[in-house]
Amino acid sequence: MTKPGQHVLSTLRQMIASGELQAGERVAEIPTAERLGVSRTPVRIAFRALEQEGLLEKLERRGYRVREVSAEEISGAVEVRGVLEGLAARQAAENGLSDEQRQGLRECLAQGDALFATGSITELDLEEYHSLNQRFHTLILEASKNPAIVSALSRNEHLPFASVNALAIDRNHLDQEYRRFNFAHMQHHAAFDAIDCGQGARAEAIMREHANATLRYADLFSQAPDNSIRVIGQDSENKTGK
Amino acid sequence: MTKPGQHVLSTLRQMIASGELQAGERVAEIPTAERLGVSRTPVRIAFRALEQEGLLEKLERRGYRVREVSAEEISGAVEVRGVLEGLAARQAAENGLSDEQRQGLRECLAQGDALFATGSITELDLEEYHSLNQRFHTLILEASKNPAIVSALSRNEHLPFASVNALAIDRNHLDQEYRRFNFAHMQHHAAFDAIDCGQGARAEAIMREHANATLRYADLFSQAPDNSIRVIGQDSENKTGK
DNA sequence: TCATAGCAGAATGGATCCAATTTGACGTCT
DNA sequence: AGACGTCAAATTGGATCCATTCTGCTATGA
After folding, report:
1. Per-residue model confidence as pLDDT tens digits over B186-233
2. Residue nearest to nucleotide D15 (CA to C1')
3. Phi and psi torsions of A190, nearest 5°
4. pLDDT exceeds cutoff 90 at B127
5. Residue among A54, A77, A148 minimizing CB distance to B156
6. For residues B37 and B31, what is the distance between their CA atoms, to the nearest angstrom?
7. Domains of chain B
8. How many CB atoms lie within 10 A of CB B170?
9. Which nucleotides of D are covered by protein (CB under 7 A)?
10. Which phi and psi (to 5°) does residue B20 adopt?
11. Contact in structure between A89 and A204 (CB atoms under 8 Å)
12. What pLDDT was estimated at residue B87?
């Protein structure tokens, strides 16, 4: 923990993503500070940042609340991600890839090929493919040489992805997940091909559609959010309907 | 000043946009706090926010520095704005406009028509058109019903727009500005027509190209030989090449 | 019995205090 | 003369303290 401030921020992010802080739950500075063993100052900073990221919403004079993300919001964010990564792919195609960028993308594709070669996939492989996927997308963003895309995306990075990534892997239907990720991987191949050939419009179209692959489609939207407002603290059993 | 914290933030933003804090200049918490007559706490919060907005960059253990925005960065941000507003226009076309949205957009167009009807334009008119323009764009973003677009855009709101909007009006060539804004206004008409007819793809294409109208094109990039963008203000004679 | 006023508790926002770390300079040694 | 080590100044980061304000309950009066 070389940077305690950043540590508080990422810890809270993780607590939200993991569901330790449930959607709709109220969070206050003092209990959170005590819980994490730090002072109120870094917590205050972190709350502001998390509000910016869309993970918290401010209740005037009553602290913050973990935002509930609706299905529409997620699909809207996915669409935003689609056009931005589409733009990135187009600009990457127009700029041309450097040798190391091409190399990095090819490695991602090859490692993915190896993963899917067996015809089945384990839970562990999914984790590995996930990091592979992240790397591929990051490389395309870099290749666009447009930092504004990253900025615009960083807002959505946690809102849809923290929710979707935690949710989107259905470990009870690994065969179904296999097909979904295999399809996404094929889109990666197509996107790389288009970028490497300098086909900007095609690369854009592929990446734009590809964003939808981060969803499990209708399957995703079946969770009922709890509308009750609770304050986190030591007495969480005291959350009776009051 | 009901919200001093917000006040500090917007004051600093204004100081950067107006050039009172020059690009590349270092800013520290204590002098800034004394200058604004507040404590270090709100300044610290504001610096974090300004860093997020891309107006400041952090120097490790040495405070912050006002970022210099390159021409490439601005054109990249404009392109991001283009695809996002294009997406908004398409979704607005797909969703259909509500009666009041249609009414609001038509009012913007009519007021713009009145402004341009005389065939010439004064500096005052430019200010008015500017607010008109803002309203039009905001209405389209609202009509998209996709808050993620606004989120993604808010990051870019200050970086390119604070610079470009202040920059982009060349008060010495109002006739040229007239033609430029007239063209932009025609694009507004076209965009509204496409949205109102439910032509999503056409609306998207128009708004996407329209983003470039926020630039003075090549003219913009010929003023700063060092690639840095300067803000025109009251003391524009002090812009010696240094 | 219901409504209103007042009071206590709680929570944020800002100010100040303390600690840790880095920068830059100065002096000395090789 | 140059380089290295040490020291002081400055600056951020975290912790604590005080003021303000909002909420919710309670008590009293109609």
Report:
1. 999 999 999 999 999 999 999 999 998 877 654 444 344 333 333 332
2. A39
3. -65, -40
4. no
5. A148
6. 10
7. 4-66 (1.10.10.10), 71-222 (1.20.120.530)
8. 15
9. 10-17, 21-23, 25
10. -60, -35
11. yes
12. 98
Average pLDDT of chain A to the nearest whole number: 81
Report the footprint of strand C: residues with C-beta closer than 7 angstroms: A 28-30, 40-41, 44, 58, 61-64, 231; B 3-5, 8, 38-42, 45, 60-62
For residue A56, report the phi and psi dihedrals to the nearest 5 degrees: -120, 155
* Residue ranges of E strands in B5-118: 26-27, 56-59, 63-66
| ipTM attached to this prediction | 0.79
Contacts of B194 (CB under 8 A, 6+ apart): B89, B93, B200, B202, B203, B206
- Extract the tokens encoding B234: 């009251």
The residue that minimises its CA distance to C1' of D16 is A39
**Beta-carbon count within 10 A of A47 CB:** 23
CA–CA distance, A79 with A157 (Å, rounded to integer): 13
**Residue A91: what residue type?**
Q
pLDDT in tens, B133-178: 999 999 999 999 999 999 899 877 776 544 444 445 566 677 777 8
Residue A56's DSSP bridge partners are A66
